[in-house]
Specification:
31% of the residues lie in helices and 20% in strands. It is α/β, with parallel strands linked by helices. The longest helix is centred in the N-terminal third of the chain and has 14 residues.
């Protein structure tokens, strides 16, 4: 057996700096749409939700003290996670949130979930967007926002960061989606997308 050394591949060139105008639009687009002390619903599907996508934004935003952050599920029962041994107890159901905030919340955070096109989840996201809430996906939660747009239930055009774009790029039916590389967050009102690795430093 002969081992022949080969040259290491050249690293890719560094990404270009984000233009100041784009950064300003992103920050403006993420401002609370209704309240100075915003209400943030971190949405989960009882049947299955990615624990990292859910707990990082929930924990960091709650600890910040800058908003009312609520763990929300469709049904009043524990949320199963992809890690089978861990379940999360929701603080409110979508119906309770609708009763408590009839004019809608300020933000809905959508983690990765399975099935990603659950009708109740899509209907609630669409209803909240219609009330002016800003919808933020984390990582593959972008697939659920893509399903909302694909089913024509919302005016949301979905702009994806790299992770979500890698998955959605395989589905040519999703003509209203846009992939952007080298972005930790992308805003396309009334929706936004973040990669999972970007959830912590940007929260």
């Amino acid at each position: 057996v002969f081992l022949v050394p080969i040259a290491a591949p050249k690293p890719p060139p560094p990404p270009a700096p984000i233009p100041a105008a784009e950064h300003a639009r992103t920050m403006e687009g993420l401002k609370p749409p209704k309240r100075s002390f915003p209400v943030i619903a971190v949405l989960a599907l009882n049947e299955g939700t990615e624990i990292t996508d859910f707990l990082i934004p929930y924990s960091v935003l709650r600890e910040s003290g800058l908003a009312e952050v609520i763990a929300v599920a469709i049904e009043p029962r524990p949320i199963k996670t992809y890690e089978a041994s861990v379940a999360i107890e929701p603080q409110a159901t979508t119906r309770q949130i609708d009763e408590r905030y009839p004019d809608g919340v300020d933000y809905v955070i959508v983690p990765a979930m399975q099935p990603r096109a659950d009708p109740a989840v899509m209907a609630w996201i669409n209803a909240q967007a219609g009330k002016g809430a800003k919808i933020v996906s984390v990582c593959a939660g972008a697939l659920t926002l893509g399903a909302v747009a694909l089913h024509g239930a919302s005016d949301v055009r979905v702009a994806f960061t790299r992770n979500g774009g890698n998955l959605l790029g395989r589905d040519r039916r999703r003509r209203r989606d846009e992939r952007r590389r080298h972005r930790r967050a992308r805003v396309d009102a009334p929706s936004a997308s973040r990669g999972a690795a970007a959830a912590l430093p940007h929260a």
